[in-house]
Amino acid sequence: MADPAETASPPPADTSAEEPAQQNEARFSAVATGQKFEVPVLALQNLTMFPETVVPLGVGRPRSVSGVEGALATPEKLLGCLTVRPDRSDDTDAKSSDLYDVGTLVMVKRMERLPDAMRILVQGTERIRVVEWKQEDPHLRAVVEVLPEPRTVDPEQVEAAKRNVQQMIQEALALLPNVPAEVRIAVLSSVDPVRLAYFLGSILNLGVEEEQKMLEANTADELLRLAHNNLGRELEILQLRSKIATEAQTEMDKAQRDYVLRQQMRAIQKELGEDETGEAAEAELLRERLEKVELPEEVRTEAERELKRLERLPPAAPDYHVIRTYLEFILELPWLKSSEDKLDLEEARRILDEDHYGLEDVKERILEFLAVIKLRPDTKSPILLFVGPPGVGKTSLGRSIARALGRQFERMSLGGVRDEAELRGHRRTYIGAMPGRIIQSIRRAGVNNPVLMLDEIDKLGNDYRGDPAAALLEILDPQQNNTFRDHYLDLPFDLSRIFFIATANQLGPIPPPLRDRMEVIGLHGYSDREKLEIAKRYLIPRQTTDNGLNQAQLKIDDEAVELIASRYTREAGVRQLERNIGSVARKVALRIAQAQAESVVVTESDIREYLGPPRFYPEQARKELPAGVATGMAWTEMGGEVLFIEATLLPGGRGLTITGQLGEVMQESARAAQSYLWSHAAEFGIESEIFKEFGVHLHVPAGAIPKDGPSAGVTITSALASLYTGRRVRPDTAMTGEITLSGLVFPIGGVKEKVLAAHRAGIRRILLPSRNEADVDDIPEDVKNELQIVFVSNISEVIDSALEVLVANPPPHVTAGDSARGSREPEPEPLTVKGLDR
Amino acid sequence: MRNSNRDVSPILDRRVSPSGRLWNPAADVYRASDGWVVKVDLAGICSDELQIEIRGSLLSIRGCRRDTHYREGFVFHQMEITYSRFEKTIEFPSPIEGAAVRQDYRDGFLIINVRT
Q1: How far is CA A748 from CA A183, A753, A776, A792, in A?
Q2: Which residue in chain B is spatially nearest to A46 when comparing CA positions?
Q3: In the predicted model, is pLDDT for residue A584 greater than 70?
Q4: SS3 of A396, please?
Q5: Beta bridge partners of B110
Q6: Would an 8 Å CB–CB cutoff place B15 in contact with chain A?
Q7: Is A711 a catalytic residue?
Q8: Number of Cβ pairs closer than 8 Å across A and B?
Q9: CA of B14: which chain A residue's CA is closest?
C-alpha cells in the first residue's frame, strides 16, 4: 500500500541535487527532501538510528511488530524510527508524545520471524521530522517530512575536524583489537565527513541525548564538532579504562602467579612432609621449649624477642632459618646446667693411677688442685698447661682428670687455628655464621662446667684475620671469662666454671701473657723401666684386644719389650712403642688365624723376626775415649740423648774451628771454655804456648742435626782440657752444665731426660751442676741406684772429676820430655766422687 | 587472558555497519565489435521508471524496485529481496558521449547496447 503523500516543494530537493555532484559518491534517498508522507513509526528505546547505517533490530512488542508489518505492506518498505526520550522510565509502550520529533527514515532490507519476535535489518536513509501524528494503535503512524542533509558552512573546518576524528579513530582502534577488519576499513576509508560522523554516532555509546543532538545537527560543522567532542571523550575513557584494565591485569597476574606458586610450594612441602602446619608447629615447639628450659633473664628476653620475629616471618624468608638456628642453639646451650663434682680424693688418686703409670709429680699437683676445689667449691677452676713431648699422655691425663672429677670431657684442637673468629664465632649478620669453637664445645658437653682441653695450644697460628691467642687471653682469664661474649650468640656466657686444660709440646711458642695465665706442669719422657711398665699394663693388653687376640694368646716378655723400646723406637713417649707392639700383635694374630699356633710367647730373640732389623742404634758409652773427646748429655723433644764432643789440635792453625751445626750459644760456650782454660793454663798444667801455636777444631756429631744451648759448656771444657793436658775423659762418665768465664758451673734443665738417656746408653757416672741437685729426685729410684752422680760447682771440680789423672796422649808440643814422662810414669790417683784434690 | 578487553569495547555492542550504497546491482560489460554490451542483474523493476544517462565516459542507470506483489491480507513471513532505488554507474575506457543506446529487458536482465 503505497503512501505517496503530498508532493514536496522542489527547491530543497534541488539544493541536495547540486551537492552530490561535488562528491564522487552520490547519496541516495528513498524519497526526495522536503517530501511529506505518512509512514509507520517504530519507537526505539536507548538507540538512535542514523542515516547511512545498517542496523539489525530485534522487534518483540506487538505494537512494534505491527509497525514493521505496516512498513512491509508498502512497496518501498519504509519505516520511521524515532527514539524514546530518556526521561521516560516506565516500561509501557511508548506513546507518540514520548518520542523525539526528529528521527531517521529507514528501509527494511530483511526480515525473518523468530518464535515470538521478528528480526529485521534496517538501513537508515534520511532524517525526518514528524509533522503530524496520525494514529497510536495498533501501531504509531505519522506524517513526516524529509530533512535536508546537513550543510557544510566552512569546508576547511569540516575537513580539519574530519581528519582529527580519523586520527582519534586510529588511536581508538589501537585499543580495540577485536574490531572487525571491515569496520576498520570502512571507517578509515570513509571520505564523507557527514557519513563518518553518523557512523560514529551510531557505534559510540553516547547515550540517547548526545546521539539525538548529533542527529538533529543541521550543519556538517556542528555535526563534526559533536562527533569530535564525543569521540574525544570516548577515547579518553577508553584509554583510561584500558590503562586500568592493564593495571588490574598486571596486578591480577602477579597475584595469580603468586597464588599458583604458593600452591605449588605447598604441594611440594606436603610431599616433603613439611607442610605449613609443620612450620606453625615449629615456632610453637620452640616456644614450648623456651618456656620449659632454664635460662638467665637476659638470655630469655633475647630469645623471646627473636622468637617473636620468627613467628612473624614466612618460612621462606632468608632470615627465618638464621633465627631458627640461633634459637635452637640458645635452647641447647647449658646456660645453667652443670654436673655435680665428685670430689673423693682417694677415688681420684685411684683413677689417675689406674689410667697412668708414673707421672707422680703431675698426679700430685692435680690432686692438689682437686683438693682446693673440694674445700672451696666456688673457687675459680685452675687452668693447667701440660707441656711435654708427644705421646707422654697429656691428652689422656686430661681425660682422667675429667673422670676423677666426674665431669664431662671435651677436647678441641687449636693446632692450625689462625682466625680469632674460630674461637669467638662470627656475627650473625654473616651468611653461614656459626658460634665459635668454645661455645660449640660447651654445647657438645651439655653442661657449663666440663673439663675443656685446648690441645696443641703452642700450635696456634695467626694472620691478618686476628690473633687467636689474643682471644684466648680473654677466654682463659678467670676475672673476665664469666661474661664471655661469643660473636654469634652476642650474649654473655659464664666460662669461669670450666676446667681448662691446655697441652703443648713446647713452651716457647706460647705468648708470655697466655703462658702467664696457666699453671705449667711439665711431663717428662718416660724411662725404659716406665715404658716397660706402661707397655705391660696398658699397651700390650690394648693391642692384644684391638687385634682380636685374648690375653692368653699373646705374651711378650719384658726383655722383648725393652728391646723394642730401645732399638725400634726413639721417643720420649710411648706411641711408637705401642705401634710396634701392635705390629707384633698383628703378626701373631696372623699365625693364630692360620692355625700355626695356639698361643705365642714373644721373646727378645723373636723380635727381629717380627719387626726386622733394629732401626736405631743409640749412642752407647764408648769403652775408651781418646784425649779430646768427652761424653755429654742433651735434651731433645724426643727426650734425652748422649752426645760426644770431639776436639783436636791443628798444628800451625789458628783460633777455634767449630763444626757440627752448633748454634750461637753453643759456639760461645766453646769460646768461653777455651778462654777459661787459657787463662788458667798454669792451674791445669797446660803450657800456654800451646794456645798460640795450635788451633783447635771442635766437632759435635751427629753433624746433620742442629744443636744449641748452653748446657754443653761443661762437656766442651772437659774435651778441651783433655786435649790440652793429654789426660783422657773417663768413658763411664757423662756430663752437663753451663759454664761461666769465671769458672762457675750453672744449672741446666731437662735433668731427668738427660740422665735417663745416659743411663740407657750405659753411662754409670754423671756430672751435674750442684744447683741441679733437687732435680735428681725426679729420676726414678731404680735408675738412680745404678748411677753415681757427682755434683760440681766450678770447672776445677769438673776437670778433677771427669779427667783421668794419667796423661795418656801428651800434647804434641811438649814431646821433648813431658809426654814421655807422662806416658811412662802414670800416677794413678784414687778417683774421688766429690772430692777435689789438686 | 586477552579477552578481558571485551569489557572495554562497548563500541561493538551494536552490530552496526556503514551502509554504502543502498543497492548496487551486479553488472557484466562485454566489448563488442561495434561498441559495448552492458548486462545488469535487475529483476522486477518497472522499466518505465528507468533512467539511463551518459556523461563523458560514464554510463549511469537509475531506477527503483517496488514490491508490486503485495496484496491486501498478505502478511510477510520472510523478506530478503531489497526494494529500493538504485544507481549503477559504469565507467568505460573511452568517452561514449553521442553513442547510440538501446535498452532491452530480457529474462530479468537489463541489456544495454552502446554503439559507438
Answers
A1: 115, 12, 12, 12
A2: B14
A3: yes
A4: helix
A5: B40, B105
A6: yes
A7: yes
A8: 120
A9: A203
* Residue A279 DSSP code: H
**Residue A173 CA from chain centroid, whole number:** 59
Distance separating alpha carbons of residues A311 and A323, to the nearest angstrom: 10
Using pLDDT thresholds of 50, 70 and 90, give the confidence band for residue A823: very low
Q: Which helix (H) or strand (E) holds A797?
A: helix A795-802
Cβ pair B4:A190 closer than 8 A: no
How distant, in Å, are the alpha carbons of A659, A696, A697, A699 from that of A648?
12, 6, 5, 9
Clarify whether A374 is annotated catalytic.
no
To the nearest whole Å, the CA of A22 is away from the closest chain B CA by: 15
Q: What is the spatial distance between Cα A457 and Cα A507, in angstroms, rounded to a whole number?
A: 9
Residue A186: what residue type?
A: A
Distance in Å, alpha carbon of A113 to nearest chain B alpha carbon: 6
Instruction: Report the length, in residues, of chain B.
Output: 116
Write out the three cell numbers for A712: 754443653
Q: Which CATH class is domain B19-66+77-115?
A: mainly beta
pLDDT at B22 over 70: no
Residue-wise pLDDT tens digits, B76-92: 888 888 887 788 888 88
Which chain A residue's Cα is nearest to B88?
A26
Decide if B7 touches A, using CB distance below 8 A: yes
Integer angstrom CA distances of residue A6 from A30, A31, A129, A136: 15, 12, 15, 21
What span, in angstroms and rounded, lies between the C-alpha atoms of A787 and A483?
Answer: 54
**Å between B21 CA and nearest CA of chain A:** 7
Contact B18, A53 (CB under 8 A): yes
Give the domain ranges of chain B: 19-66+77-115
Cα–Cα distance for residue pair B49/B43, rounded to 1 Å:
13
Tens digit of each residue's pLDDT (9 = 90 or more) over A278-328 = 566 777 888 888 888 888 888 899 888 988 888 777 777 778 888 888 888
Q: How far is residue A26's CA from residue A616's CA, in Å, rounded to a whole number?
A: 129
pTM reported for the whole predicted model: 0.50
Identify any residues that bridge with B45 across adjacent strands, giving them in sequence order: B65
d(CA A710, CA A746): 9
Phi, psi dihedrals of residue B30, rounded to the nearest 5°: -105, 145
Cβ pair A178:B6 closer than 8 A: yes
* Contact present, A543 and A561 (Cβ < 8 Å): no
Candidate list A718, A754, A801, A819, residue with the active-site label: A754
Residue of A nearest to B82 (CA): A109
Q: Considering CB atoms only, which of B11, B67, B75 is closest to A204? A: B11
Q: CA dist A450 to A231, A341, A376, A455, Å? A: 88, 10, 18, 15
Q: What is the pLDDT of residue A710?
A: 78
A786 closest CA partner among A764, A767, A768: A764
ipTM: 0.74
B75 at interface of A, judged by CB pairs closer than 8 A: yes
Domains in chain A (CATH in brackets) are: 10-146 (2.30.130.40), 155-242 (1.20.58), 276-332 (no CATH), 345-522 (3.40.50.300), 532-611 (1.10.8.60), 629-824 (3.30.230.10)
Show residues of chain A in contact with B25, CB under 8 Å: none
What is the identity of the amino acid at A786? E
Catalytic residue, chosen from A16, A566, A711, A801, is A711
Q: What angle do CA A751, A756, A757 make, to 5 degrees?
A: 100
Q: How far apart are CA A753 and CA A572, in angstroms?
A: 8
Confidence of residue A102 (pLDDT cuts 50, 70, 90): very high
